[in-house]
């Protein structure tokens, strides 16, 4: 009996200690709470490539140029004044003197040089964007080969490193930065407003540097520098707290040059990775803005007759099917898809409206082309292949497979992260069977295996998607160049490459767009891909929230958000991480569930355009 | 007894080492890399740099670097998928949540399961037997994600009795711990019923009844202690699995526990985190098994554990 | 000689759990199998992969019979999918249990009979395998077996190959408990006089296994085999939830439940039929299997044999 009591007391004590340990510290409530598109991968601007990281990067840093909160066009940020020379290749940025880091240090041109140089010496996913700068690519390659040579030799190599002077980036004085481009690049200012071009505060990163033994130079920076209290940034907000898988808190920076324009003081970002859980949190008032809603859920909301707080907008990305264009299939058989007529037959026998209308419910528009239509006003989008079953059958027969006879069975590869991929694959399969008489199999794999096989071109037909990185059509057309590693189709067309190269040298912007459109037209006519639909994104936020503008690029500037009506302090149910209140003092109301703030009113379905 | 415990403790490092190596082998052989992405192909230079940084380029590099550090400093190294966080960070952040939840769930399972099992045994073949067992066996007759989802829908979405997820207040503990307790409860109920039946038909019970002891007293005071033994031995592995968290419950209720990492680390091919989570699970399992074996001696002094 | 109670068959059919469990199970099995001629051929109205785009996510209704259980987003009739799903779930369950039994009995017999270092090695291996994370093992086993299978993949055999991989992987991680139990049984049987006598008479281990040990192990084997089937089916549903289970368009009750979870349980617009029907069928079958297993365990219990 005594033993039983002892064991229960020990367990109770343990239990209490655990609760205290797991709950986290007490904090003031936030002014604004939002859910991001998944958990953060990294907060290092030189390494980040995921949307959720880029989203908060705009809160913490500011580049030479920043984005206007309504139009998302580049406007002056750290750079106050800009001089461009007549050849449009030399940009001279004059930095504003009152730009400061969150520890009070002034932002100087040396910070930009450090950051831009670092991304060439320690390459990340977006280093290629720096290739528009003269000498950048050459410097990166020279540095990498110098590194390799040093690795093979004795410690502390005697070979001199390549000279950074070859790169067209010069700090003329602490407040003047001069950049020389390789060719006139009309979207360069947009690039300057993109995280790989943000400045970095070298002194605070120094203690996290990992040195290479052979060269004595920095090989990489330990990501610890991105965690509070070490992170020093120059944007409207500073990183106050970041707990793994729980919460990220940003507080308005006192050193930001434009801090009077920043409305919200404390912003919380709890980690909710499941979309349904995020929607539930929104409905109960715990969260003010959900920045990503699963397409299945959007479909549910639209089927139910609309949800008033759901805001849909088209995204700068396309969902398509990619066909293997290599001469042989991965298992050694001859690849029937290497023949363009077969690919065209496959592309023309799909009723895209039916597929998109049934398998997707978020109101996505069918995409006839690869580069999203209507984003650039002077881009004449190609028409692509029509839906023509008779012509498709004729082409297939021409290629040697009348009525699908003799056509070897192919596999459709996709990953099972979304129900949509399954449904679309099933529909494609049944359409090809019905319209062309060919048999295909479904193969559903994990995302890592999918990625590996896609890049290794170990598939016959696969689903794919592509989102643009920067506001120019080349972010789409460059993908299918024969020398591009991201060309999953293995499609090599010299005419296409020639058109892309020609576009690079054109000075007249309209002509350049036309050439690029011609190239895209060739890609579609040769049916290396079958575009299906344009991605749709959705936000959930209440009418009291102002400053969130819907834009194709899915980016929002945090300093522009504010709340109207309801007092701007946190709603009574928005919590960060509150500690467990002691049992005895627990008011009964805390036991109740979160009350629904919004009743589910039937509203009209918001149009996507 | 002391010798027995000592011998078992000595075996710990050996078994853990073998588990480490086998897990490493399995994780290494799996196709896919933690650094690659599905849409964009990673630059070979970047890939090489990352692999060198994480000592993950060749298997011998990995084995030369990490196990030593695990043994000497208990540091499992950096996580390959969660850049900037170490595996120890991940474990330290998730473990308290999972253990708290697991303890509550095990208590519910144990108490509830034993109660139902004993009741079913005492009222054998009656309606109560079938009905109570049917309810208890729901835990192993429905997939866990269905049970958790239904609980959430009924009690949170419709009745609004409890919040829909997250971690930080008492009300957020209730639904997840019930959901987590369903499976062990089913096993405990079934085990305690079976062993209670055995005990109820044994000689000494008949003697006790003949002596005139009341039924309840006989059942609870004498039989239960012995009937509890098989349940107790099941509790070891059950607790190890429950205390380290459940992927399903954590996903449905959005909890920052450890269970999600068991699956996500495999999906992400995050080799260091896979090893970290496996080691935690194995350590729990071995320790709890040892505790169960020792506990046997307290519960029933007739059993000699050391001689097995 | 098999040491089973006298009047075993009478007691078998008299036991309530066995009757309930076995009866229900038989019913489920019959329904699923008898509807196969309707649900498999690709032309018919009840074809399990028939997609009717005009009837997308419609609730259950009786007038077109194939929509009796409702439809999913692509217009598949849930009724046919449940029927085929049942057949496949039970196949996967039974096959995985078979793999499990063969391995578990083999290892258990060997460990229990041989004793010494073989026993020690095998049981420590079982300990190590218990310590490995289940999901990692299954995913990796699937991948390892799938690679060679891919080479010999021909159309039509494709989905079947995936099923083979699936139940092999599940079976390979489910044999551990069976091995321990069988070993325990063999250890206690080994000391019985008739085994000693056979050994002394010079009868080889093979014959001892087959004619003397195995018949006495029928009890525990049957019980654990019956109890492994529902475990295997549940594991398959968990794998479907993670997306590494059976390949579409083949349905199993587990994958139907996993796919139906979000449409049925979201607070915005619920398609309840997508979850209720597969889960009811699943629960009834698994409950009946569990009841059957419990009933069999009661029957085979040596302590009750004496009565």
What does this structure look like?
The complex is a heterotrimer of chains A (609), B (308) and C (307). By secondary structure, chain A is an alpha+beta fold. Chain A has helices spanning 2-23, 51-60, 109-121, 136-152, 188-192, 202-205, 275-283, 295-303, 340-348, 352-359, 389-398, 419-436, 447-455, 474-477, 494-505, 509-525, and strands at 32-35, 65-67, 74-76, 79-84, 90-95, 169-173, 176-180, 209-211, 218-221, 237-243, 247-252, 266-270, 289-290, 310-323, 410-415, 440-445, 461-467, 529-541, 545-546, 562-563. In chain A, the strands form five sheets. Chain A has a ten-stranded mixed sheet with strand order 10-11-12-1-13-18-14-17-15-16, with helices on both faces. A four-stranded antiparallel sheet of chain A has the order 4-5-7-6, with helices on one face. In chain A, a hairpin with a 6-residue loop joins β2 (65-67) and β3. The two termini of chain B are 12 Å apart. The longest helix of chain B has 36 residues, at 87-122. Chain B has one domain: Orthogonal Bundle (MetI-like fold). The model of chain B has no long low-confidence stretch (mean pLDDT 84). Chain B is mostly helical and 308 residues long. The radius of gyration of chain B is 23 Å and the shape is globular. With 307 residues, chain C is mainly alpha-helical. The chains are: A alpha+beta (609), B mainly alpha (308), C mainly alpha (307). Chains in contact: A-B, A-C, B-C.
In short:
The complex is a heterotrimer of chains A (609), B (308) and C (307). With 609 residues, chain A is an alpha+beta fold.
Please specify the SSE layout and strand pairing.
The complex is a heterotrimer of chains A (609), B (308) and C (307).
Chain A: H1 2-23, E1 32-35, H2 51-60, E2 65-67, E3 74-76, E4 79-84, E5 90-95, H3 109-121, H4 136-152, E6 169-173, E7 176-180, H5 188-192, H6 202-205, E8 209-211, E9 218-221, E10 237-243, E11 247-252, E12 266-270, H7 275-283, E13 289-290, H8 295-303, E14 310-323, H9 340-348, H10 352-359, H11 389-398, E15 410-415, H12 419-436, E16 440-445, H13 447-455, E17 461-467, H14 474-477, H15 494-505, H16 509-525, E18 529-541, E19 545-546, E20 562-563
Parallel strand pairs in A: 1-12, 1-13, 15-16, 15-17
Antiparallel strand pairs in A: 2-3, 4-5, 5-7, 6-7, 8-9, 10-11, 11-12, 13-18, 14-17, 14-18, 19-20
Chain B: H1 2-29, H2 44-53, H3 59-73, H4 87-122, H5 127-136, H6 138-141, H7 144-158, H8 171-200, H9 203-211, H10 215-243, H11 247-252, H12 259-268, H13 271-299
Chain C: H1 8-14, H2 16-34, H3 36-39, H4 78-114, H5 116-131, H6 134-151, H7 158-173, H8 176-190, H9 193-200, H10 205-242, H11 253-265, H12 273-300, H13 302-305
């Amino acid at each position: 009996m005594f033993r039983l009591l002892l064991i229960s007391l020990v367990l109770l004590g343990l239990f209490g200690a655990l609760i205290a340990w797991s709950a986290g510290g007490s904090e003031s409530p936030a002014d604004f709470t939002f859910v991001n598109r998944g958990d953060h991968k990294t907060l290092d601007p030189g390494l980040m490539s995921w949307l959720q990281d880029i989203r908060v990067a705009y809160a913490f840093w500011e580049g030479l140029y920043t984005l206007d909160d309504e139009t998302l066009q580049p406007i002056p940020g750290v750079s106050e004044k800009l001089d461009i020379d007549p050849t449009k290749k030399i940009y001279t940025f004059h930095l504003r003197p009152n730009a400061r880091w969150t520890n009070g240090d002034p932002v100087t041109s040396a910070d930009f040089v450090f950051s831009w140089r670092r991304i060439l010496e320690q390459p990340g996913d977006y280093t290629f964007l720096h290739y528009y700068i003269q000498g950048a690519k050459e410097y990166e390659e020279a540095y990498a080969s110098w590194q390799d040579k040093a690795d093979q030799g004795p410690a502390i190599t005697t070979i001199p490193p390549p000279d950074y002077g070859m790169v067209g980036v010069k700090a003329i004085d602490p407040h003047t930065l001069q950049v020389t481009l390789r060719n006139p690049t009309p979207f360069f200012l947009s690039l300057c407003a993109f995280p790989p071009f943000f400045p970095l505060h070298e002194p605070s990163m120094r203690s996290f540097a990992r040195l290479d033994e052979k060269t004595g130079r920095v090989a990489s920076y330990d990501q610890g520098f991105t965690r509070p209290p070490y992170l020093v940034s120059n944007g409207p907000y500073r990183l106050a707290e970041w707990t793994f898988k729980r919460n990220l808190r940003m507080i308005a920076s006192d050193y930001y040059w434009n801090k009077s324009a920043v409305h919200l003081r404390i912003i919380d970002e709890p980690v909710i990775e499941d979309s349904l859980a995020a929607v539930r949190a929104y409905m109960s008032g715990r969260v003010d803005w959900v920045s990503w809603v699963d397409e299945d859920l959007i479909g549910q909301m639209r089927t139910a007759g609309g949800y008033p707080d759901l805001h849909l907008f088209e995204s700068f990305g396309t969902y398509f099917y990619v066909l293997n264009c290599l001469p042989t299939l991965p298992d050694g058989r001859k690849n029937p898809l290497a023949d363009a007529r077969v690919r065209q037959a496959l592309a023309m026998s799909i009723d895209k409206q039916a597929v998109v209308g049934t398998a997707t419910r978020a109101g996505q528009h069918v995409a006839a082309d690869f580069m999203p239509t209507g984003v650039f006003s002077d881009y004449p989008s190609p028409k692509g292949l029509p839906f023509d079953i008779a012509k498709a059958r004729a082409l297939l027969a021409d290629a040697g497979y009348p009525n699908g006879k003799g056509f070897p069975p192919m596999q459709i590869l996709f990953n099972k992260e979304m129900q949509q991929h399954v449904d679309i694959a099933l529909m494609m399969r049944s359409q090809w069977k019905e319209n062309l008489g060919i048999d295909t199999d479904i193969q559903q794999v994990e995302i890592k295996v999918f990625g590996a096989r896609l890049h290794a071109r170990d598939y016959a037909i696969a689903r794919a998607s592509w989102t643009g990185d920067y506001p120019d059509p080349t972010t789409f057309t460059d993908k299918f160049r024969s020398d591009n590693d991201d060309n999953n189709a293995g499609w090599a067309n010299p005419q296409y490459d020639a058109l892309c190269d020609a576009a690079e040298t054109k000075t007249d912007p309209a002509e350049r767009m036309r050439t690029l459109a011609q190239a895209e037209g060739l890609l579609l006519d040769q049916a290396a891909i079958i575009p299906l639909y344009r991605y749709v994104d959705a936000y959930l936020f209440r009418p009291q929230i102002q400053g969130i503008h819907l834009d194709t690029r899915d980016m929002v500037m945090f300093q522009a958000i504010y709340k109207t009506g309801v007092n701007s302090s946190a709603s009574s149910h928005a919590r960060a991480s509150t500690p467990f209140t002691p049992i005895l003092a627990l008011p009964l109301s805390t036991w109740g569930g979160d009350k629904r703030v919004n009743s589910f009113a039937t509203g009209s379905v918001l149009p996507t355009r | 007894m002391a010798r027995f415990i000592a011998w078992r403790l000595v075996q710990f490092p050996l078994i853990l080492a073998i588990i480490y190596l086998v897990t490493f082998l399995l994780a290494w052989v799996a196709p896919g890399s933690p650094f690659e992405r599905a849409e964009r192909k990673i630059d070979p230079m970047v890939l090489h740099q990352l692999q060198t940084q994480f000592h993950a380029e060749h298997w011998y590099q990995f084995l030369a670097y990490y196990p030593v550090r695990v043994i000497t400093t208990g540091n499992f190294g950096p996580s390959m998928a969660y850049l900037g966080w170490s595996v120890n960070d991940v474990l330290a952040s998730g473990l308290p949540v999972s253990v708290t939840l697991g303890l509550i769930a095990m208590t519910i399972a144990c108490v509830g399961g034993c109660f139902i099992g004993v009741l079913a045994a005492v009222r054998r073949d009656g309606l109560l037997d079938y009905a109570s067992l049917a309810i208890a066996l729901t835990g192993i007759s429905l997939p866990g994600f269905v049970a958790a989802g239904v609980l959430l829908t009924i009690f949170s979405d419709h009745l609004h009795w409890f919040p829909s997820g997250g971690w930080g207040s008492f009300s957020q503990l209730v639904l997840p711990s019930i959901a987590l307790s369903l499976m062990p409860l089913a096993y405990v109920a079934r085990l305690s019923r079976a062993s209670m039946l055995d005990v109820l038909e044994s000689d000494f019970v008949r003697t006790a009844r003949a002596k005139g002891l009341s039924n309840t007293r006989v059942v609870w005071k004498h039989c239960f202690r012995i009937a509890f033994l098989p349940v107790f031995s099941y509790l070891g592995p059950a607790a190890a699995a429950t205390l380290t968290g459940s992927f399903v419950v954590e996903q449905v209720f959005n909890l920052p526990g450890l269970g999600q990492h068991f699956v996500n680390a495999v999906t992400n091919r995050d080799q260091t985190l896979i090893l970290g989570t496996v080691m935690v699970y194995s350590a729990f399992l071995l320790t709890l098994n040892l505790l169960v074996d020792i506990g046997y001696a307290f519960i029933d002094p007739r059993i000699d554990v050391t001689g097995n | 000689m098999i040491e089973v109670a006298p009047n075993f068959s009478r007691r078998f059919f008299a036991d309530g759990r066995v009757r309930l469990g076995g009866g229900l199970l038989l019913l489920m099995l019959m329904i699923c199998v008898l509807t196969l001629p309707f649900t498999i051929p690709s032309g018919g109205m009840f074809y399990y992969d028939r997609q009717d785009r005009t009837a997308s996510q419609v609730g259950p209704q009786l007038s077109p019979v194939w929509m009796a259980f409702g439809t999913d987003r692509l217009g598949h009739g849930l009724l046919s999918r449940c029927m085929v799903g049942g057949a496949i779930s039970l196949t996967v369950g039974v096959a995985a249990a078979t793999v499990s039994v063969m391995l578990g009995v083999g290892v258990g017999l060997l460990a229990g009979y041989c004793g010494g270092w073989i026993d020690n090695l095998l049981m420590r291996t079982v300990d190590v395998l218990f310590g490995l994370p289940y999901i990692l093992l299954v995913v990796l086993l699937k991948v390892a077996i799938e690679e060679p299978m891919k080479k010999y993949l021909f159309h039509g055999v494709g989905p079947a190959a995936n099923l083979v991989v699936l139940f092999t992987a599940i079976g390979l991680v489910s044999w551990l408990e069976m091995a321990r139990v069988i070993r325990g049984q063999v250890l206690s049987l080994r000391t019985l006089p008739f085994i000693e006598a056979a050994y002394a008479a010079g009868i080889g281990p093979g014959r001892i296994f087959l004619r003397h040990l195995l018949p006495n192990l029928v009890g525990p084997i049957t019980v654990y085999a019956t109890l492994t089937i529902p475990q295997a089916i549940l594991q398959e549903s968990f794998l479907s939830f993670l997306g590494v289970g059976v390949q579409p368009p083949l349905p199993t009750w587990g994958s139907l439940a996993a796919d139906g979870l979000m449409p049925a349980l979201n607070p915005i617009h619920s398609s309840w039929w997508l979850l209720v029907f597969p889960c009811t069928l699943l629960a009834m079958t698994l409950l009946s299997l569990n009841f059957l297993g419990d009933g069999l365990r009661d029957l085979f219990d040596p302590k009750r044999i004496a009565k």
